[in-house]
Structure formats: C-alpha cells, structure tokens
Write a structure and sequence with these properties.
The longest helix has 22 residues, at 169-190. The chain has helices spanning 13-27, 31-39, 42-54, 71-80, 93-105, 142-152, 169-190, 194-206, 210-220; strands spanning 3-6, 9-12, 61-65, 85-90, 112-114, 127-133, 153-164, 222-230, 235-242. The protein is an alpha/beta fold and 243 residues long. The protein is globular. The protein is built from nine helices and nine strands. The structure holds S-adenosylmethionine (SAM).
Length: 243
C-alpha cells in the first residue's frame, strides 16, 4: 500500500484515514470551543471572508465538503435562501452529527451526507459553489479530492479552499513556538487531547504552501485560481474557477 504522511509520521494510506478519523472523533465535542481559543476567534473572520468571496446568490446549489460542525454550511444557507440548496458533508459521522444537532437547535435543517471527498457521491456539473474549509490538509489523496471537487462543479462554478498555509517570515518563529508549545497544551486542558493538537501543528507544516496548492488546483481543472493570504499567510483562501 502507498505511503503518506500523518503529521510528521510516515504511515500507509489506510492507517492515515483511520488516524484522522480518531482525531476528529476525539475532538468533535470540544471542536468549536477549541477553534475560538486557539485562533483567538480569528477563524470566524477567515470564514466570513471566504463566505463573502463565495458570491453565493439566492437559489444557488452549494456543497460544503469536510463541513464538520457546519460553520460554513450555516453561513452559505443564509446566502442561498429558501430557493437554494446547501449540502453539508463530511467523512466523519461524529463531526457531522455535532454540526447537524447545532443547526437543528437553531431551526436550520440541511441535507447532510456522510462521504469521502475523494469519492463524492454527486453527479458532474451539479453545484454552483463548493467549499472545503480546514479539511483538505487531512485528506490522503489531495489531487484526487480536488479533481472530484472540480467534477461536481458546473463550468464557471467556484471552489473555495480555506486552509492553513505558509506564514510570512517575520512571524515564523513565534508561530512555531506557539504551535509546538502552547497549542498542544491548550488541547490537553480543554479537549483532553494533546496528541490531536500536536497533529494539527505538524499537518500544517506538511501541507502544500500557497503556490503549490494553486498549481495543484490548476492541474485538477481550475482554469483560474486566486490566492488570498490572511493573517500574514497563517491561512490562505484559494478561489478556483472551473473552466
Ligand atoms: N469545515 C469545518 C470547519 O472549517 O470548521 C471542519 C474542519 S475540520 C478541521 C476537518 C474536517 O475534515 C473533519 O470534520 C474531518 O472529518 C474532515 N475530513 C477529513 N478527511 C476527509 C475526507 N477524506 N473527506 C471528507 N471529509 C474529511
């Protein structure tokens, strides 16, 4: 079986999928609180920026991939309105269920599908907009997943990839110190899981940087790709248009 990375570890592909599932099974209950704590609330601004650039119009069909607890799906649903469709998907049932329960508590009911982004169960050319927010990093065959995202979009449709990326030089040292010293400790205190937050820091370092991800999206079939650096490159938003 082919080898891949799980953080800094080299593992076979099936082992990576199993370990990623373990991470999100473990953190699901505390996921939203941890996001606010570890980003000092900044993940809300990064996501709001992505929603603004998605350009969703009433009636649009939108796919949220690796949607987890549903921050993006909820925001998209407000834009797409009653005539639109937003499908909330994730490979992990615990994350998906946590998100679905939160939405139901708010009076929002969206179609929810458990599926692997590398094999999306939707026909070609179906969606106006697709989004993967902080999910691509965890996928095993990223090229395959991007090709699937391209397939299910209509020509002219757009993909938003919001993901941790390569931070600008002056911030690199303090950011590394925070990631490898403080972040796992916050994970230990709040989510009772130090290892998952160490994996988060490692997986960010192993993820393709801004230029490499842009090239991958072009290879997957996106004719035009714009890159927006957020918070000095801590996060990047890639917006690809299917040609
Ligand atoms: N999109 C949400 C957000 O921005 O808060 C959740 C992001 S969470 C860090 C990453 C999600 O990716 C997890 O819910 C995980 O289950 C999901 N994931 C990992 N591998 C996946 C795959 N191959 N297909 C679909 N989802 C996947």
């Amino acid at each position: 079986m082919a080898q891949t990375h799980f953080g800094y570890e080299t593992v076979d592909e099936a082992e990576k999928a199993r370990k990623v599932r373990g991470v999100f099974d473990s953190v699901a209950k505390r996921y939203d609180l941890m996001n606010d704590l570890m980003s000092l609330g900044m993940h809300r601004a990064w996501k709001a920026y992505a929603v603004a650039l998605a350009g969703i119009r009433p009636g649009d069909k939108v796919l949220d991939i690796a949607g987890g607890t549903g921050d993006m799906a909820r925001a998209f649903a407000r834009k797409a309105g009653a005539d639109g469709t937003v499908v909330h998907t994730d490979i992990n049932e615990t994350m998906l269920r946590t998100g679905r329960d939160r939405m139901l508590d708010e009076g929002l009911s969206l179609p929810t599908v458990t599926c692997d982004a590398e094999r999306l169960p939707f026909r070609a050319d179906l969606f106006d907009v697709a989004c993967v927010s902080f999910g691509l990093r965890n996928m095993t065959r990223k090229d395959q997943a991007l090709a699937e995202m391209c397939r299910v979009l209509r020509p002219g449709g757009r993909l938003l990839v919001l993901e941790f990326s390569k931070v600008a030089e002056p911030l690199r040292k303090p950011y590394d110190w925070y990631s490898f010293n403080l972040l796992p400790k916050i994970g230990k205190w709040v989510a009772k899981d130090e290892d998952s937050y160490r994996y988060l820091a490692e997986s960010i370092r192993m993820h393709p940087d801004q230029a490499e991800l842009k090239a991958m999206m072009k290879r997957a079939g996106f004719g035009h790709v714009d890159v927006h650096n957020l918070t000095a490159g801590v996060v990047a938003l890639h917006v690809g248009i299917k040609c």
